[in-house]
Amino acid sequence: MSSTTARISEILQVLQVNNLTILTFLEGVLSSREHEHCAAQEDIIRDAETMCESLYQHPKTRPHVLSWAMVTVRTQLCNEIKELAHERHGLRFRATSTTSEQLEGTFMNFISEKVKSVAPNMLTMMMALLGKKNLTVDEDCDMEGEQPDEEEEMDLGEFGGD
After folding, report:
1. Is residue 38 within 8 Å of 32, Cβ to Cβ?
2. Does an H or E element contain 9, and which?
């Protein structure tokens, strides 16, 4: 038995003797306010992404991790969209009465900044779906410079607009 395997066995025995599961131990460390637990908390926080990746890579845990991740992302994006749709953010307008100045002028910059601040994960997801996979919220999303090609532009009249 390797030294790592032996140490893992010892830790598992201590957990069992103390009637703790790995999950209750992990949750206990994360919620602890004890000073002597700080180093373990920092390890967990620092390695959280790697832990998730390890769970995702294991064939037996992958379906569970993927399912959890999808629900988590969907919930986060839905919450951001709900927040963005609140009237207090000033993004509500009628398609039939919107002026070209609103669509082409400073209002687009306002929308861009509002989306970046209120729904950063939604913006990142949208940009990834549009083929800008490396875009992060920290990068400048200048919507003015990204005009569609002439042939791709659609007349708003097709959608019932003016």
Report:
1. no
2. helix 3-17
Confidence category of residue 151, pLDDT binned at 50, 70, 90: very low
pLDDT at 141: 47
pTM above 0.70, yes or no: no
Query: Cβ distance 114 to 107 under 8 Å?
Result: no
Q: Return the structure tokens found at 82.
A: 């709900």
Which is it for the CA torsion 111, 112, 116, 121, positive or negative? positive
| Cβ-based neighbour number of residue 71 at 10 Å | 10
> Average per-residue pLDDT in the chain?
81
Residue 60: how many other CB atoms lie within 10 Å? 7
Residue identified by tokens 């038995």 is 1
For the record, the structure tokens of 58 come out as 């294991």
